[in-house]
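Record 1 of the preview.
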Amino acid sequence: MDRRGDQVRIVTPGDRRPGPRTPGMDRQEAFATEGTWSGYVRTEAGMTSGWHHHGEWESVIYVLSGALRMEFGPDGADTVEAGPGDFIHVPKGAVHRESNPSARAADIIVVRAGAGGESTFNVDGPERG
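->
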């Protein structure tokens, strides 16, 4: 009987793999299964990512350090800002981009749940309002 799927596993910082690429973000994958994705993301001070969405995946983000500003909605006109200790929920298919308005690097943890397949789609921008 193959019990490897039943084992509790650990991923150390050195074990993380490069995650899906979006300009301006350093995503590092910790775990990827058929229905979940989790990882660590670093954005440098003053950085703004490219526009993207996560298809059929919804995301929960936890801010460890720095700041996170997320633009979304028609013309990217809606904005939320989060700091250390805050959680953000991003619904399936929501086109957004992230920036770090703080003077230090921002570190976040991302957990995605979905139907499998690709988890990141880079796009030119949000829909026009």
